[in-house]
Amino acid sequence: MSKTILVTGGAGFIGSHLVRLLVNKYIDYKIINLDKLTYAGNLANLKDIENKPNYEFVKGDIVDATFINELFTKYKFDSVIHLAAESHVDKSISNPLEFVMTNVIGTVNLLNAAKVSWVKPTTKNEQLTTNRFYHVSTDEVYGSLGETGLFTESTSYDPHSPYSASKASSDHFVRAYHDTYGLDIVISNCSNNYGSCHFPEKLIPLSIYNIKNNKAIPIYGKGENIRDWLFVEDHARAIDVIFHNAKSGSTYNIGGHNEWTNIDLIRLLCNIMDKKLNRVEGTSAQLITYVKDRAGHDLRYAIDSSKLQNDLAWKPSLQFEEGLEKTVDWYLSNEEWLNNVTSGDYQKYYQEQYVKRF
Ligand code: NAD
Ligand code: TYD
Q1: Residue 352 among the catalytic residues
Q2: What is the b/e burial string over 1-14, where b = at least 16 CB atoms within 10 angstroms of the residue's CB?
Q3: Which of 14, 42, 228, 321 qualifies as a cystine partner to 191, CB 3.0-4.6 A?
Q4: Which ligand 2 atom is nearest residue 140's CA?
């Protein structure tokens, strides 16, 4: 194996797409997927690759520093791609401390272990060339835009939710380990993702589930908030390109140039669902229900990804309508996944099968 790479949070939504890409594309890399298997982690997302020789799953918590240090000693990772996080804004509003623990303390535990493993006295303040710490972050650290403008890599951080505040904090720690200890780091800040294996607490999968089951689609406030949506496999491709090519210490914004108000997005989704479920046009839209707005709800996110497009020749591969239809098709033909996730059964089965702590 030419490299041993630790991917954290690989059983989650984006992590599972990234792990699949890396395992299939780089057969000479060993990919170690470390995940606590919280409610958001589901090993069913990786069933197709779980027996590949260059893949291994380890169950564990990034908040447990002793465990993380032992893991680094055992596997001698060459690099880390860090995605493990608490990721849902609404949950962060009701339980901010959990977000501090995983997103901030967990990240610092990984940084410490990487520093101890990779930064020797002789390499202090120099760039390491073979060991990279890649932090996968969010555009939400930049705060909220008005009606115009885009987030660039030099936009000041201005997080508003406990989730975005915890991600901003972890980004700052990652940069501090570069500036202070010379750790080779890269950060990417991506817009909202959509696609298969997305936990149905987030807008798109929740709405697909509710439409399918004739339940109300909750729209916060007036539905006028804007998000910039990117197909999850395009995000995984961007991480691959950035991980392998970015300069140490650099930051890349990743986005789809694809802004939608929540209500327009849900209307489009309702039309697609009506067609797929052979319902009369307009049936699903009757489920739209305006509910109390989220506290501190950011109005608009929109990413300028021209640095990534120009430097590293990445671009989104799908038009939104095409990607959304593909996503709907996946959810409708993976009923078992959706039922297991909504009933909680996935955790019983997979956690028992894979509990592994060396
Ligand atoms: P997710 O919630 O689907 O998955 C998170 C994964 O992390 C889960 O598998 C979970 O079990 C694991 N995890 C949580 N706490 C852990 C802990 N203490 N130790 C080990 N593992 C733990 O999240 P996602 O949507 O796939 O997001 C992945 C990363 O990408 C996050 O860092 C998130 O901030 C970032 N991000 C997400 C989006 C998006 O639209 N979803 C956009 C930009 C950036
Ligand atoms: P979400 O998928 O939670 O992602 P984020 O908050 O990280 O952008 O929400 C996307 C948008 O949809 C956001 O403006 C909040 C809104 N929303 C609803 O209107 N109803 C819902 O039930 C959810 C989960 C989100």
Answers
A1: no
A2: eeebbbbbbbbbbb
A3: 228
A4: 7
Inter-axis angle of helices 320-333 and 203-212, to 10 degrees? Answer: 50
User: What pLDDT, on the 0 to 100 scale, is given for residue 356?
Assistant: 45
Query: Does residue 47 fall inside a structural domain?
Result: yes
43 CA distance to ligand 1 centroid (A)?
14
> Any catalytic annotation for residue 140?
yes
Q: Calculate how far, in angstroms, residue 114's C-alpha sits from the geometric centre of ligand 2.
A: 34
Please indicate whether residue 202, judged by its CB atom, sits closer than 6 Å to ligand 2: yes
Look at phi and psi of residue 118 and say left if phi exceeds 0, alpha if psi is from -120 to 50, else beta.
alpha
| Residue of the CA atom closest to atom 17 of ligand 1 | 61
Q: Which of 14, 196, 251 is the best mutation target for the ligand 1 pocket, counting ligand atoms within 8 Å of the beta carbon and taking the most?
A: 14
For the question of whether the overall pTM of this predicted structure is more than 0.90, the answer is yes
217 found inside a domain? yes
Query: Is it the case that residue 121 has pLDDT exceeding 90?
Result: no
Rounded-to-integer distance, Cα 229 and Cα 233, Å: 12
The mean pLDDT value for 169-180 works out to: 97
- Number of structural domains, the chain? 1
Q: Which domain holds residue 130?
A: 3-353
Q: Which helix (H) or strand (E) holds 234?
A: helix 232-245
Q: What is the mean pLDDT of residues 155-161?
A: 98
Examine the pLDDT at 190 and tell me if it is beyond 70: yes
Instruction: Write the CATH number for 239.
Output: 3.40.50.720
The single residue of 35, 78, 139, 234 carrying the catalytic annotation is 139
pLDDT per position as a tens digit, 234-265: 999 999 999 999 999 999 999 989 999 999 99
For residue 181, give both structure tokens. 């200890």
- Tell me: pLDDT of 347 over 90: no
Best of 227, 287, 292 for a ligand 2 pocket test (most atoms within 8 Å of beta carbon) = 227
Answer yes or no: is 51 within a domain.
yes
In a domain, 358, yes or no: no
Residue 153 CA to residue 310 CA, distance in Å, equals: 14
> What angle is formed at CA 141 by the lines to CA 40 and CA 82, rounded to 5 degrees?
45
Q: Is 240 a catalytic residue?
A: no
